[in-house]
Design goal:
Layout: H1 5-11, E1 16-22, H2 25-34, E2 42-48, E3 66-73, H3 82-98, E4 103-106, E5 110-113, E6 116-128, E7 131-142, H4 159-163, H5 169-185, H6 191-198, E8 206-209, E9 212-219, E10 225-228, E11 234-237, E12 243-244, H7 247-250
Parallel strand pairs: 1-2
Antiparallel strand pairs: 2-3, 3-7, 4-5, 5-6, 6-7, 8-9, 8-12, 9-10, 10-11
The structure holds biotin.
The site of biotin (BTN) has 21 residues, from helix 2, strand 3, strand 6 and strand 7.
């Protein structure tokens, strides 16, 4: 079933905008925030023509094959770093609900299913005169994107490939947003950090990130990754994509 405004109206009890196609739901959400969108409003799209990923990468959202949505939130500034955790926990719950068994969070907020990326999160804060006026949490989930034959098939996966049945994207959207609300209500408690940390597959892996190689041994309360290199020096990564090193590559 394809997503539509009418179908979403039946299940969502929050302000939302559905568009068959946009450049990027994050950009549409930013414009809505500037025009006075309320906390918790969400932009949902059937397809993106210029979906954006982290670190300036592009994000592929073909029609009716994925979830692409952006939430507009206005948490106290101290909790901004936890938005990534809230988003990752919500998608983790979604993948489990669909029946995926082998689900993990790859630091900072990729959801891996059977070791491949099924979802990504792009959180952007909008500042005005040094103060945050809101944040956009963009979530993309691969539902039935066909990666076969593309270079991405090595690293990316769709939920339907794993569960081997048709998934209803309206139901997925409803469940994802309800889990987001669940974790977001707890953003001021230690639970969000604790549960996000507990699902991180990156901890105890030997990784390379930017110029640093070492063991990712912990995360800070703000979500930074702590890495101990071969000389015992501790490095902090705020952002980036850790690459897991095999023994061979470490030497
Ligand atoms: C990443 O892993 O690089 C983050 C990908 C985030 C993609 C989502 S899809 C909905 C929202 N709109 C965008 O343009 N990007 C995010």
């Amino acid at each position: 079933m394809t997503i539509s405004q009418t179908l979403l109206e039946r299940v969502l009890s929050r302000p939302f905008k559905y568009l068959d196609q946009v450049n990027s739901t994050n950009d549409t959400a930013k414009a809505w925030l500037a025009a006075g969108a309320p906390e918790g409003a969400v932009v949902i799209a059937g397809a993106q023509t210029r979906g954006r990923g982290r670190h300036g990468r592009s994000w592929h959202t073909p029609p009716d094959a994925a979830l692409a949505l952006s939430l507009i939130l206005k948490p106290p500034e101290a909790f901004l770093p936890r938005l990534n955790m809230v988003a990752a926990l919500s998608v983790y719950d979604l993948a489990r609900k669909c029946g995926c068994k082998n689900v993990a969070i790859k630091w900072p907020n990729d959801i891996l299913v059977d070791g491949k990326k099924a979802s990504g999160v792009l959180t952007e804060t909008v500042w005005e005169g040094g103060d945050s006026v809101g944040a956009i949490v963009g979530i993309g989930v691969n539902v039935r994107i066909d990666f076969e034959g593309s270079a991405l098939s090595v690293t990316a996966i769709s939920l339907e490939d794993v569960v081997e049945r048709r998934l209803d994207r309206v139901q997925l959207t409803e469940f994802l947003l309800s889990r987001f609300d669940y974790w977001y209500r707890r953003i001021a408690t230690p639970t969000v950090f604790r549960e996000w940390r507990a699902r991180l597959v990156t901890l105890n892996q030997t990784i390379a990130i930017d110029e640093v190689k070492g063991v990712a041994f912990d995360v800070t309360a703000e979500g930074a990754l702590l890495i101990r290199d071969a000389n015992g020096r501790v490095h902090q990564a705020q952002a980036g994509d850790p690459v897991v090193m095999t023994e061979e590559r470490v030497r």
